[in-house]
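Inverse folding, one chain.
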């Protein structure tokens, strides 16, 4: 009988594919996270691990696992920067993720941040809740219009495209930057060109060595002083220290963030920064989407253990080829 470790409690029905396949499911009913050491100890004793983006599945976990019975790691997320995919490939451990099912939900949340940051919603609500609102004022909370603005998407994968569809409905002009030409209207060959033009810059690239601190002091300097930065991709794509400095100095207008460099820590300067909307990594957090994600990861695990190749395999082949490009955006 196959045995699979599910590192955290998943939404109701999420593990059904494992149970339906007769897999023995291990995990903690109290949802206490496994420490890294505990993952290293558990990995060789299971055929599969269904994990979350908060679990670091590094070479140590994978090497320990592959020396035992570990054959598959399924990350309940589109991004898989928490998994050492190169080592998994080398050891013949399949890695799967959950692309596709969260695009619309994440795009909805991205749009919520575009609107909330442009219109200073957090600051306005905080004042109201704190009793600082003395009544309607014609010069209060003057945000930036979203309609008629130019949206610059950095990365144009499934989520970026879902954001673009919403933007059209809001009367925005849409640009995108990817490293390879898309052949589609609005493509900017360079990031700089997009930053020069966009009123809202929204990030949709996976975290890779190439995209770490893609937006730093120089890029923030290049943005319009009236521009808004939105990040629903991965925190380390933005240099938070540089972003906090830019917000404090008014070098950009506002920011809407769902992800952070050192989650769950949020940079204290960002917590205090003006015109900033901060959410706790809830991009894909709707009940239906999180359930779909959990099921997809569990289905992929069952497939690999049955010798089948799931569509959401990021390691190319269970015992072969290298990783495919990241799922949450193409650059
Ligand atoms: C969430 O951040 C994901 O990558 O699915």
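Residues assigned per position:
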């Amino acid at each position: 009988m196959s045995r699979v470790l599910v590192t955290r409690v998943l939404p109701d029905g999420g593990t059904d594919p494992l149970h339906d396949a007769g897999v023995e499911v291990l995990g903690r009913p109290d949802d206490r996270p496994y420490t890294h050491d505990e993952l290293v100890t558990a990995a060789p004793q299971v055929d599969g691990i269904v994990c979350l983006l908060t679990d670091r599945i590094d070479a140590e976990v994978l090497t320990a696992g592959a020396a035992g019975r570990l054959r598959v790691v399924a990350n309940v997320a589109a991004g898989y920067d928490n998994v050492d995919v190169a080592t998994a490939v080398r050891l013949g451990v399949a890695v799967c993720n959950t692309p596709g099912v969260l695009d619309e939900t994440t795009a909805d949340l991205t749009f919520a941040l575009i609107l909330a940051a442009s219109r200073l919603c957090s600051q306005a609500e905080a004042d109201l809740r704190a009793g600082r609102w003395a009544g309607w004022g014609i010069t209060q909370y003057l945000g930036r219009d979203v309609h008629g603005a130019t949206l610059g998407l950095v990365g144009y994968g499934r989520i970026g495209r879902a954001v673009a569809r919403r933007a059209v409905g809001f009367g925005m002009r849409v640009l995108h930057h990817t490293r390879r030409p898309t052949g589609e209207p609005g493509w900017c060959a360079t990031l700089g060109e997009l930053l020069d033009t966009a009123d809202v810059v929204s990030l949709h690239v996976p975290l890779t060595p190439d995209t770490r601190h893609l937006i730093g002091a120089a890029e923030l300097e290049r943005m319009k002083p009236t521009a808004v930065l939105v990040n629903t991709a991965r925190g380390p794509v933005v240099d938070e220290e540089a972003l906090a400095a830019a917000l404090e100095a008014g070098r950009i207008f506002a920011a809407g963030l769902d992800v952070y460099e050192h989650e769950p820590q949020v940079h204290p300067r960002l917590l205090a920064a003006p015109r900033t909307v901060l959410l706790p990594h809830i991009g894909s957090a709707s009940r239906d989407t999180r359930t779909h994600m959990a099921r997809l990861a569990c289905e992929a695990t069952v497939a690999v253990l049955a010798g089948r190749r799931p569509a959401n395999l990021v390691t190319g082949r269970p015992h072969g080829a290298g990783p495919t490009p990241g799922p949450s955006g193409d650059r």
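The chain has two domains: 3-101+287-315, 103-278. Residues 317-328 have pLDDT under 50 and may be disordered.
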